[in-house]
């Protein structure tokens, strides 16, 4: 490294790890936490409860699965459409669970709402996993037909086809992620509802066995029905290791540790990939498993601590293995489409690893640089504060938070008049006038974190620009934990 590059890297490191400007400390993280959880009520499918707070929504999808003699009512629409995709929904569930496991003690009055959001997902996943032996229902609705319409979920009249993976047409990726979701959730409910927790864990074990025994990618089994929407680009090995890791966390059954020890090298344990998302679970698994080494000295898990350190070093400018990209305004940048999903998931891992390190007196060595838990917290705070408004545009990318936030959200229910304001049906093609309208969305999808700005911090508040203006459950779920941390931790 030449001297100019070295000093530039040091400056970048200083900017990213230095204390926040005074203005950023005024963020009401507790309010942001409340809103981030409320968002999930805007994504609910099924019969809404009396406790529903996002009151512009109504009941929808009340016959889902009925033509196939299965009850698939409930769950979440993944983003701005009316499809229930199993892989991102399961990942959302796992991340909501992990947020509560690590940071639920800091949620205070929002813990009950967070558990309610989680249970809305797990109730659905339980039905999808137990309706038929050796079968997992993984999707409701035909996505290409759904995407040809712009209509409220309360009005949808597109086909509600049901898709499943079986022993003959396997889906180890979606099944193992579902197992991870149920296992993680069983930890959340272990004390407050032990019977429900036991049911979750038992089902998780069965679904994991199904995923492991009948190996194959659901993208191959279901082809165009899940691709290009949520193809399993990373394959299914990462989900198998992830699922086994969560089952071990939940059950402490040594057979799962034996599985991890015996199969880790073939399931991606030795591969470094620095993108954590609904598709790729490798780095998340390493952070999770590193806890066992840091807390209990489990020797077989030392490898995961080493790879977790590699991941952390890749994020910090000035280290010998720095490779991340940041916008001029300081936002982690991965992809042009829905970039904030990677920001929220990375931020969650930064804080979770910081918690593991701090609890055990650990740190990260990146060559000659020593990175502490405090450094990771500072870097995570930069990302959270950017999302909430400390950015060049001075815009909050969480809808309904702050004085300035996007008004033209790519979301059918939010952009169309509610069923309460406009009781008459709005047909498939009639809804497009609202998609193309320049008017703000009539219904505020409070708490939704959108796709976010581009690599130069530019953001177009345009409903047609779904890459930047569409929300998703898997963007919000990893954000819940960091907001709980900053709302409950004196800085």
In round numbers, the mean pLDDT is 93
Based on secondary structure, the structural category is mainly alpha
Instruction: Classify the helix fraction into a percent range.
Output: 40-55%
The overall strand count is 7
Strand neighbour order, sheet with most strands? 1-2-3
Write the CATH architecture name: Alpha/alpha barrel
**CATH top level label:** Mainly Alpha
* Euclidean distance between termini CA atoms: 35 Å
- Count of discrete domains: 1
- The general outline is globular
- Determine the number of helices (DSSP H or I, runs of at least 4 residues): 18
What is the CATH fold-level name?
Answer: Glycosyltransferase
Largest sheet: 3 strands, antiparallel
Low-pLDDT ranges: 1-24
Radius of gyration: 22 Å
Question: How do the helices and strands follow one another from N- to C-terminus?
Answer: HHEHHEHEHHHHHHHEEHEEHHHHH
Report strand %: under 5%
Family: Belongs to the glycosyl hydrolase 9 (cellulase E) family.
GO molecular function, one term: cellulase activity
Protein name: Endoglucanase
Enzyme class: hydrolase
């Amino acid at each position: 490294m030449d001297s100019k590059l070295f000093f530039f890297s040091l400056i970048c490191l200083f900017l990213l790890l230095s204390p926040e400007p005074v203005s950023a400390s005024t963020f009401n993280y507790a309010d942001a936490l409340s809103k981030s959880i409320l968002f999930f009520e805007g994504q609910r499918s099924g019969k809404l409860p009396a406790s529903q707070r996002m009151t512009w929504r109504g009941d929808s999808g009340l016959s889902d699965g009925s033509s196939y003699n299965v009850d698939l009512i409930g769950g979440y629409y993944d983003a701005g459409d009316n499809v229930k995709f199993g892989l991102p929904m399961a990942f959302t569930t796992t991340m909501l669970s992990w947020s509560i496991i690590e940071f639920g003690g800091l949620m205070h009055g929002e813990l009950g709402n967070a558990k309610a959001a989680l249970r809305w997902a797990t109730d659905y996943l339980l039905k999808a996993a137990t309706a038929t032996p050796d079968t997992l229902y993984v999707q409701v609705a035909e996505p290409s037909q759904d995407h040809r319409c712009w209509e409220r979920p309360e009005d949808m009249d597109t086909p509600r086809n049901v898709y499943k993976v079986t022993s003959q047409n396997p889906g180890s990726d979606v099944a193992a992620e579902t197992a991870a979701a149920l296992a993680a959730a069983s930890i959340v409910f272990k004390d407050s509802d032990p019977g429900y927790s036991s049911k979750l864990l038992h089902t998780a074990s069965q679904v994991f066995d199904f995923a492991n025994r009948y190996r194959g990618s659901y993208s191959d089994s279901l082809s165009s029905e899940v691709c290009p929407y949520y193809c399993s680009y990373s394959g299914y090995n990462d989900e198998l290791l992830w699922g086994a890791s969560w089952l071990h966390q939940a059950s402490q059954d040594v057979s799962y540790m034996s599985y991890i020890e015996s199969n880790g090298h073939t399931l991606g344990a030795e591969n470094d990939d620095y993108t954590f998302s609904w598709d790729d679970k490798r780095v998340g698994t390493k952070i999770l498993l590193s806890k066992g080494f840091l807390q209990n000295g489990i020797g077989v898990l030392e490898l995961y601590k080493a790879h977790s350190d590699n991941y952390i070093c890749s994020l910090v400018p000035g280290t010998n293995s720095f490779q991340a990209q940041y916008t001029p305004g300081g936002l982690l940048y991965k992809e042009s489409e829905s970039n904030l999903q990677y920001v929220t998931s990375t931020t969650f891992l930064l804080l979770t690893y910081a918690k593991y390190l701090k609890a055990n007196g650990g740190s990260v060595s990146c060559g000659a640089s020593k990175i502490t838990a405090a450094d990771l917290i500072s870097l995570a705070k930069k990302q959270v504060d950017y999302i909430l408004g400390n950015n060049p545009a001075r815009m909050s990318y969480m809808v309904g938070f702050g004085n300035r936030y996007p008004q033209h959200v790519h979301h059918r229910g939010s952009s169309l008049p509610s069923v309460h304001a406009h009781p008459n049906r709005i047909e498939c093609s009639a809804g497009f006038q609202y998609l193309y309208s320049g008017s703000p969305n009539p219904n505020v999808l409070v708490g939704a974190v959108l796709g976010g700005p581009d690599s130069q911090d530019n953001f177009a508040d345009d409903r047609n620009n779904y890459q930047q203006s569409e929300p998703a459950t898997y963007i919000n779920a990893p954000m819940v934990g960091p907001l709980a941390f900053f709302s409950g931790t004196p800085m």
